[in-house]
Amino acid sequence: MQPRNEELHFHTPAKFADAFPYLAMVAGSRTAWPQEAPIRKRFHQHVFVYTTGGCGLVEVRGQRFLAEADSVVWLDTAQAYAHSCAAERENWRYLWMGIEGHGLNALYQFLGVQQQPLFVPRDPKAARAVFKAVNGLLAERSPATDALASAAIAALIADMIAPRLTGTEPADDARGADRLLTVLKAMRDDLVRSWTIDDLAALARLSPSQFFRRFRDVVGTTPMDWLRHERINQAKRLLVGPDAKVSAVAAACGYPDPYHFSRDFRRVTGYTPTKFRRDGGY
Q1: pLDDT tens across 229-241, in order?
Q2: At 147, which helix (H) or strand (E)?
Q3: How many helices and strands in the chain, by DSSP H and E?
Q4: Residues 273 and 158 in one domain
Q5: Are 31 and 5 in contact (CB under 8 A)?
Q6: What is the CATH number of the domain that holds 14?
Q7: Which stretches of the chain drop beneath a pLDDT of 70?
């Protein structure tokens, strides 16, 4: 049962959803209290958090940021992060959405979001309206949900990043970032493959030790841990589909052994695959 201070809407995109640049996978609203433990869940999605009131404390790679009213936090939840109500504040009220989409990883790197995840939209009222609209669309789940949500998210991103793009040049290490993006895309495109560090290092044109260190420094976790979470993320989408079978989902996500799949799924999500499927997601 969800706490009374939280509203959550989980969404499974329609078959034609890939025609749109952005997909809203989950959205909600929440009030965080000072005594609550920080949230650190790993969804392997990009998450936008809009502060409607109070103040939040966001931690990314050891750096802390205060999320105050009308600001937007951009988190790549494939990486280590934490957020909670800021100390000595009554609460932190926010709207949020978890999204996937073409080019998000590259834009995240280009803008240096990992070093500065806070954005101040040019039009805070319009940004708040987008978050409310996406929440409403996911709650209603109409045939137009994917198209309308994608359009709203595109407008939000444009409004968020415009100030930062002024005078912005690509990072000096753009070539290295491109290599890592190639590796991430290859893993996402072939989750069934039994990837090894040697395979991935060869794609990045680095030695295995160089690749491992660079991946961990940039992404915030190890290559195999990232791959594990990506497989579980795909499994969540498949499990809420009609007539989903746990063994078939496991195989489609790179787990020939259903027991190993169930163990990893529970470690990452806190649910067994069967319960997740029965509850229609979370």
Answers
A1: 999 989 998 998 8
A2: helix 145-165
A3: 10, 9
A4: no
A5: yes
A6: 2.60.120.280
A7: 1-4, 166-178, 281-282
Query: How remote is the C-alpha of 229 from its chain's centroid?
Result: 11
Contacts of residue 245, defined as CB under 8 A and 6 or more positions apart, other chains included, come to: none
Same domain, 269 and 154: no
Q: Is the pTM of this model over 0.70?
A: no
Query: Which residues lie below 8 Å from residue 216, measured CB to CB, with a gap of 6+?
Result: 222
Asked if 201 contacts 211 with a C-beta cutoff of 8 angstroms, the reply is yes
DSSP summary character for residue 38? P
**Same domain for 63 and 87:** yes
Segment 7-16, tens digit of pLDDT: 999 999 888 8
Which residues fall within 8 angstroms of residue 151, CB to CB, at 6 or more apart?
20
Same domain, 189 and 134: no
Same domain (yes/no): 128, 34: yes
**Vertex 264: Cα angle to 272 and 29 (nearest 5):** 65
